[in-house]
Amino acid sequence: MTWLDLPDNSLFGLHNLPYGVFSRDGGAPRVGVAVGDQVLDLSAVAASLGAPFAAVVAGPVLNPLLAAGRPVWRQVRATLGEWLTDPGAAESVRPHLYPRGDVRLHLPVEVGDYVDFYASEHHASNVGRMFRPDSAPLTPNWKHLPIGYHGRSGSVVVSGTPVVRPCGQRKGPGDAVPVFGPSVRMDIEAEVGFLVGAGSELGSPVPAKAFPEHVFGVFLLNDWSARDLQAWEYVPLGPFLGKSFATSISPWIVPLDALEAARIAPGAQDPEPLEYLRDAEGWGLDLALEVRLNGHVVARPPYSAMYWTPAQMLAHMTVNGASVRPGDIYGSGTVSGPEPDQRGSLLELCWGGAEPFALPDGGTRTFLEDGDEVTLSATAPGPDGTRIGFGEVTGRIAPARG
Ligand code: CA
């Protein structure tokens, strides 16, 4: 029970309590927690009530809280639960609640390194069929390791930031030489992101079982992709300018501790991965994603269908001794399910441009046009039949700048 006036079906109920950074009336960004349709100024409450963790939530980003480690994360979450349920705390806490509609949300974290994986077998197979029709859909390494690349953390932006159509080189099948200009195959990738909290020591791998000690929470990520730039540049070193112009993330970080009821056994892996990639704890997650284009749902990708788990991704990313730091993020790769309406990229939804899909307004799309707005959202099971929300990450395509 809570003294807050919270509807039972709120996606931001007491079982969720995601963290973000907000500002009011042009003031300084502050650490907050979403509850119902309000945001709690965590920094102000912690300071006024003399909470022992007040110092790590006093800054303009989540990084000090991330660095504090799992015992502190649990302490903060337990304290939040007490504040929001104890009627005796209501008088102290209530003045620090603001309508979420009245605040501005910021990038919640100073992003360190950014790695993006490719962990959906359905997505990787679809891409393989399109681009390598004469070969097996999956590359020979795909089921032996979670494939990834290092992205550009400096262009990670918060939901709502306009995405300027990138310019670059492309060379179509009929072109004798490459041409330069605005991308004509602008796409999205609906992904789930993982935020690293506690860091690791350089030289020491992080085992899969240590995933909950190092990963603080989960969010949504749109890996905007210029397919024409990507197709020309990616051989042999992988994604570069076709991806690095912008990556949008959702403003609320759902703590791992809020996702206990969303955990499911991951699907079978055949062949069995090498010892260091075995995820005995089984970090499958039952997140239901939704992709909307200009308000219309175009796909519902199920995260439950992913092949590699986030614990396996973390183990692989550090097995060579590379360290992680508070504020590092990694993406799952495009989430696609087995069905055509579960595909998390337009590339797959329009099958490389060959099959334009219909929109309810009578129009059709292959890739994104200027002014198009894409929104990703997700929910997950909470305890006792409740649902937990991730909010959304949205972005609108702005015309190229020459
Ligand atoms: Ca991606």
What report would you give on this structure?
With 402 residues, this protein is an alpha+beta fold. It folds into two domains: 19-106, SH3 type barrels, CATH 2.30.30; 114-398, Fumarylacetoacetase-like, C-terminal domain (Fumarylacetoacetate hydrolase, domain 2, Alpha-Beta Complex). It has nine helices and 26 strands. It has helices at 42-48, 63-68, 70-85, 90-93, 121-131, 211-214, 227-233, 310-318, 346-349; strands at residues 19-23, 30-35, 38-41, 97-99, 104-106, 114-117, 148-150, 156-158, 163-164, 167-170, 179-182, 186-187, 190-196, 215-222, 225-226, 247-249, 254-255, 263-264, 284-285, 288-293, 296-299, 329-331, 357-358, 364-365, 373-381, 387-398. The strands form seven sheets. Strands 6, 7, 8, 13, 14, 16, 17 and 22 form an eight-stranded mixed β-sheet that branches. The protein is globular and about 75 Å long. The termini are far apart. The mean pLDDT is 97. It binds calcium ion. The site of calcium ion (CA) has 7 residues, from loops.
Give a concise summary:
The chain has 402 residues and is an alpha+beta fold.
Write the layout of secondary structure elements.
Elements: E1 19-23, E2 30-35, E3 38-41, H1 42-48, H2 63-68, H3 70-85, H4 90-93, E4 97-99, E5 104-106, E6 114-117, H5 121-131, E7 148-150, E8 156-158, E9 163-164, E10 167-170, E11 179-182, E12 186-187, E13 190-196, H6 211-214, E14 215-222, E15 225-226, H7 227-233, E16 247-249, E17 254-255, E18 263-264, E19 284-285, E20 288-293, E21 296-299, H8 310-318, E22 329-331, H9 346-349, E23 357-358, E24 364-365, E25 373-381, E26 387-398
Bound molecules: calcium ion.
